[in-house]
Write a sequence for this structure.
């Protein structure tokens, strides 16, 4: 059996940056054990398994696809991350899919994406944040950033993400160089409601940082993700927060992980947000077994 496979870096136009993942194009479902073995073999942050929603369709003509599962290199099954739709759309356009908008059916619901010039645009819900009492999550924040100054603290109940805004006095380099011990998060989080931690910082329009409205890093050890290189779902939360803070609907963001990634953000009037990024296809081939 042969399965077409891509390895792709998302939210970047340079190989070996952004968010790395593998995409396998399936004609039929595979056994769960085989899913796991392939993901372990690929050894990337995520391996996505995509198949046509309607068996009679063609990968170059279908508008609807099914994303039944994504699996990390540690064998952890995930419900389908938004950034993978960006990656998969790029793969399908690489195969010359003729549709302008593609829809992916995942365990998290339907996700739509389209290509605009050299960017792939994800159509995501916009998640609101609400003030969070510091005392409830103080131990978790201490484990994450020590004695650094927190300027604002918010919680997104829809995504179970805690947003920690660092003081505007800090530069981007402080966030980039921060050493975070995510193993301590699991014991430090006592409320049971936090499943993802966002650290964020207001942008700096000077020097090399010109143009970025805000920066972030994202950690989710509750799902086996110590640090996610670039995260679409976290920016669906960040977009809501920073739009309110900056009074802007069009923003440019940068996630300051080791690999780094840039995201273009556009809030819509229907309560959703378009998050766009570029994609670099690193490798294309076939799995044979």
């Amino acid at each position: 059996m042969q399965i077409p496979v891509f390895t792709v870096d998302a939210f970047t136009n340079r190989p070996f940056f952004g968010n790395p993942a593998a995409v396998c194009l399936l004609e039929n479902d595979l056994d769960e054990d085989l899913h796991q073995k392939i993901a372990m073999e690929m050894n990337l942050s995520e391996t996505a398994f995509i198949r046509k929603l309607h068996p009679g369709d063609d990968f170059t003509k279908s508008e609807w696809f099914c994303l039944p599962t994504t699996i990390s290199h540690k064998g952890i099954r995930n419900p389908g991350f938004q950034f993978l739709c960006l990656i998969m759309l790029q793969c399908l356009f690489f195969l010359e899919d003729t549709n302008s908008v593609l829809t992916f059916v995942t365990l998290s619901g339907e996700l739509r994406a389209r290509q605009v010039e050299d960017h792939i645009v994800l159509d995501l819900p916009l998640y609101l944040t609400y003030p969070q009492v510091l005392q409830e999550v103080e131990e978790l924040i201490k484990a994450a950033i020590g004695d650094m100054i927190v300027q604002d603290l918010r919680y997104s109940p829809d995504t179970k993400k805690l947003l920690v805004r660092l003081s505007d006095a800090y530069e981007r380099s402080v966030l980039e160089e921060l050493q975070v011990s995510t193993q301590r998060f699991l014991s430090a989080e006592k409320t049971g409601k936090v499943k993802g931690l966002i650290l964020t910082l207001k942008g700096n329009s000077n020097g090399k940082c010109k143009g970025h409205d805000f920066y972030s890093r994202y950690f989710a050890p509750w799902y086996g993700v110590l640090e996610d290189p670039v995260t679409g779902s976290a920016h669906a939360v960040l977009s809501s927060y920073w739009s309110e803070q900056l009074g802007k609907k069009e923003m440019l963001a940068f996630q300051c992980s080791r690999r780094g990634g840039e995201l273009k953000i556009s809030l819509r009037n229907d309560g959703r947000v378009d998050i766009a990024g570029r994609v670099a296809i690193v490798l294309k081939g076939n799995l044979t077994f």
Notes: The mean pLDDT is 85.
